[in-house]
Amino acid sequence: MAEMVRGKVEMKRIENATSRQVTFSKRRNGLLKKAYELSVLCDAQIAVIIFSQKGRLYEFASSDIQRIVERYRKCARDGKNNSKIDKQLQLQELKNEAESISEKIELVQLSQRKLLGYGLDSCSLDELQEIDAQLQRSLFLIRARKAQLYKEQIEQLKEKERLLLEKNARLSLKAAAHGGAAALGCRSSPSCEVDTQLFI
User: Fold this and answer.
1) Per-residue 3-state assignment (H helix, E strand, C coil) for the chain
2) What is the rounded CA–CA span in Å between residue 97 and residue 103?
3) Per-residue model confidence (pLDDT) at position 85
């Protein structure tokens, strides 16, 4: 005889009061049994509290339920406090990072102004020499880049010139070949001979 397969139970409130009470009793007992087995097999501290629809209390605890509940409350309080402290630390870190970035931006802007020649009155001789060295390095890099671009443009122009010369040579050869063929055809034609004799 084939084994009967139980259908999947739809997760919604059971409307029939009798069926609802029967299901509650079965599942309550199953839940308490599983809690007991878990506490024995895994040496875990477990507390289960159930209130029925009519307000009747059912409970299971692997040890003193008051101690387990108090332990839960303490862990919940500690978790909230730790979470609050973590958020405060994160906010402080973000604030410090924002201040550091702001200071760096101010230094960069001040350095740019000095490179442009503004605000030099407060600079010492060493600072002016450093600014001069930075400008010399920047000028060297700019000139090197310009020279590279000029060289690339010259190479491109030379390549275009070479292609144009090759194209011109091909056209010249084609024109010469076409002209030679026309002259050869004229010499082989009787009308060309008559015209020549009349011209003489």
Assistant:
1) CCCCCCCCCCCCCCCCHHHHHHHHHHHHHHHHHHHHHHHHHHCCCCEEEEECCCCCEEEEECCCHHHHHHHHHHHHHHHHHHHHHHHHHHHHHHHHHHHHHHHHHHHHHHHHHHHCCCCCCCCCHHHHHHHHHHHHHHHHHHHHHHHHHHHHHHHHHHHHHHHHHHHHHHHHHHHHHHHHHHHHHHHCCHHHHHHHHHHC
2) 10
3) 66
Q: Determine the structural domain holding residue 33 and report its residue range.
A: 17-63
Cα(104)–Cα(110) distance, integer angstroms: 10
The CATH number of the domain where 43 resides is what?
3.40.1810.10
Residue 10: Cβ within 10 Å count = 6
pLDDT value at 5 more than 70: no
Q: Encode pLDDT of 91-123 as tens digits.
A: 888 888 898 898 889 888 888 888 888 888 888
